[in-house]
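HUMAN:
Just now I want nothing more than another pair of eyes on a protein record. I would be glad if you read both lines and explained how they fit together. I have put the entry right below:
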Amino acid sequence: MRAVVVRTFGGPEVVEVADVAVPEPGAGQVRIKVAAGALNPVDAAVRAGFFGGPDRTLGLGWDVAGTVDAVGVAAAWQVGDPVVALVPGVADPLGAHAEYVVVDADAVAKAPASVDPVHAGTLPLNGLTALQALDLLELAPGGSLLVTGAAGAVGGFAVQLAARRGIEVTGQARAGDEELVRSLGAAHFTVDGVEPGGVDAVLDAAVLGEPALEWVRDGGVYVGVRPGAHPGPVRGVRTDAVGVRPDGVQLAELVRLVDEGVLTLRVAETYALDDAAKAHARLAGGGVRGRLVLVP
């Protein structure tokens, strides 16, 4: 089968489409015939060597939408089931940007019924990151939250999920994104942030770091999206970062919210799997609203 890989770290030019063996599911696993999967900034980070790694071929891709193709022992799925899943892209030699991928059965959820696989393939990584980050914040209804990068994929989901929880959301993004951010449910919008200590919490999807921490009140909470890169605690502010993990139960809840119209799935462009390097170059060019999606 074909799979997107890197054999050395660098820019979009190091991305290859290689012929590799079709993976076989083990006990408690399923194999998915991939229909689509989003390209995310974390893929660019893996490609560039941000996570390091041994001298071996690394597969790319964390998001998958497709159909169950084979089932291992004790995996509670049926061949033919339409599904979505998060593939932990740094842990395995093959990622989701391939014709087939094997994942643990408990990482899988039934695909949304209301959207096509291209849109469904934008949900797992960014949706789970936003949901798990909000859980880390532990904000009660009525609390105030500033989401940086609110026009992005993680930030956009975070705005929608937080607003649904009754949290007062301020979205931070570029001036041209105000209409979009407000349409996602932000009560307030800002380009330059808020006054120091102006909110109970910050979800820093844009990875601003220390400047975003200043916007949190004394004793509040800051959650980033890059483990190990979040600032240390000050003024009694609890600081943390989400290390996104596969979770089929949480993903099923996100799917339900998609089908109810609560969550918006945004696709910027689609690329054939063979054009993965072009998609990486487009992502590197910046200014993408919505996700670039690879289709085998």
Notes: Residues 126-241 form a domain with the Rossmann fold fold (CATH 3.40.50.720). The two ends are 10 Å apart (CA to CA). The mean pLDDT is 94.
